[in-house]
Design goal:
alpha+beta, 429 residues, 43% helix, 17 helices, single chain, five-stranded mixed sheet, 14% strand
Length: 429
């Protein structure tokens, strides 16, 4: 996410256990014996999100082509898997397939620990590398836990990127135009502050606040800087980019652009603040798009790119991974392949997600088509800068804590120093 993480992200949802027992109607032949089998599936997308809707349909399609299989689905939260995956996947309780965050500190770590199945033979068998290429493929492949090359350990069926969501009605009410420069962006926020309104919904206890920090840092960065930070292990947290980002975030809290008490809030609190009309803007990923389309009824909204930045947080979406302890790896591969089929890809797009292999002619929603087109432009320009918590294992928690310290007004040298220490230690292991 970030948190994605990616992000990645990922929207925290209430943990619940849902068992889905599907009828055994034979509408095709399974590529593996599936008599009286159970496929255990975990993911953390909400039921009404684009991924939740599309993957629920994929479950139905899977059942139709695999008579006799029962899918046992458990809905997890991002935080649950972030903290417990290594322990759970190393046990007999491991699912057969699950959604997991991409990056060195997450999927890369599990691959390095031998907890994930090498999917390279499946990629060749199904031709997934024809659909997942370039920057998208980078987050699927790991060599000794390092993202970007080596074997395939995960498969995304969607992509994601950061943007600014905005309340069109509030912009119109206060005479604010959609900003196209950073100066216009801050001027817009000043207008809302003068009206007694906190411009930006945020949350410091999880990934959102650190994405504000990262966007500010990226305004002073370039693709080489991203490669040094994300892959090479050569970040300097006291350089001009990190220093500017930390100081500016602290200044934004002082100015009231971001509420001081948001330091203890979670991602769902941020989403609620924007949906309720409390704040006119929210900066986060495309994973919120489908949720807002289905839940926001009281005002008109749209999105724009962070003004002035050529780099944005983004990547391929979270990964389908198959644990080494999966009891039904072949069935899990079949399920992944279904999520990459044209009908599921089109459903993802039309519900507000960014599919990796949809045909433009299948996208009927104009706003959804624009969302996909914007992503394609970013990918073509090498504008995806991944997520700030990716580089090393456990860095997410350090980044959350450091960002909270910055928001609390502590001198930025301390938080940046803690990031440097954690980062260097992670790359030395």
């Amino acid at each position: 996410m970030f948190a994605g993480d990616s992000r990645r992200k990922a929207v925290a949802v209430a943990a619940a256990l849902i068992s889905v027992s599907l009828s055994a109607t034979a509408c095709g032949k399974s590529s593996s014996s599936s008599s009286s089998k159970v496929l255990k599936l975990w993911y953390y997308e909400s039921a009404d999100s684009a991924m939740g809707v599309a993957w629920n349909q994929a479950i139905k399609d899977f059942e139709q082509s695999h008579p006799g299989v029962t899918v046992q689905f458990q809905e997890k939260t991002f935080e649950q898997l972030q903290k417990t995956a290594p322990m759970v996947l190393n046990s007999s309780s491991a699912p057969d397939i699950l959604e997991y965050n991409k990056g060195d500190a997450t999927a890369g770590l599990l691959a390095k620990q031998g907890l994930l199945t090498d999917l390279t033979p499946a990629v060749e068998k199904y031709g997934w590398d024809k659909k997942i290429t370039g920057n998208l493929a980078a987050t699927s492949r790991y060599a000794n836990g390092v993202m970007g090359s080596g074997q395939w350990y995960g498969i995304p069926d969607y992509a994601e990127y950061g943007m600014v969501y905005y309340n069109k009605d509030m912009f119109a009410k206060y005479g604010v135009q959609v900003p196209t420069t950073f100066a216009e962006f801050t001027a817009a926020m000043d207008t809302f502050v003068k009206a007694g309104i906190t411009p930006l919904a945020s949350a410091g206890a999880e990934y959102p606040a650190q994405q504000y920090l990262y966007n500010l840092v990226l305004s002073k960065a370039d693709p080489t800087w991203v490669d040094q930070y994300q892959i090479a292990g050569k970040a300097d947290f006291h350089d001009a980019a990190w220093t500017y980002g930390a100081n500016t975030l602290a200044d934004w809290v002082k100015k009231g652009y971001i509420a001081k008490d948001s330091v203890g809030l979670k991602a769902t609190d941020m989403g609620t603040a924007f949906e309720s009309g409390k704040s006119p803007m929210m900066v986060s990923g495309s994973w919120w798009y489908g949720t807002f389309e289905s839940e926001i009824k009281g005002f008109s909204w749209d999105t724009f790119q962070w003004p002035g930045n050529s780099l944005v947080p983004g990547s391929g979406g979270n990964l389908w991974v198959i644990p080494k302890n999966s009891k039904n790896a072949q069935l899990a591969e079949d399920f992944i392949d279904i999520t990459l089929r044209p009908d599921i890809q089109a459903l993802l797009a039309n519900k507000g997600a960014v599919p990796v292999a949809a045909q433009p002619s299948d996208i009927t929603d104009p706003k959804a088509r624009e969302l996909v087109q914007n992503f394609q432009k970013l990918q073509a320009s090498n504008g995806l800068a991944y997520y700030p918590d990716w580089p090393t294992a456990g860095f997410y928690d350090t980044l959350v804590s450091a960002t909270q310290d910055i928001m609390d007004g502590k001198a930025v040298g301390g938080p940046l120093g803690s990031l440097q220490s954690a980062y260097d230690q992670g790359f030395s292991q």
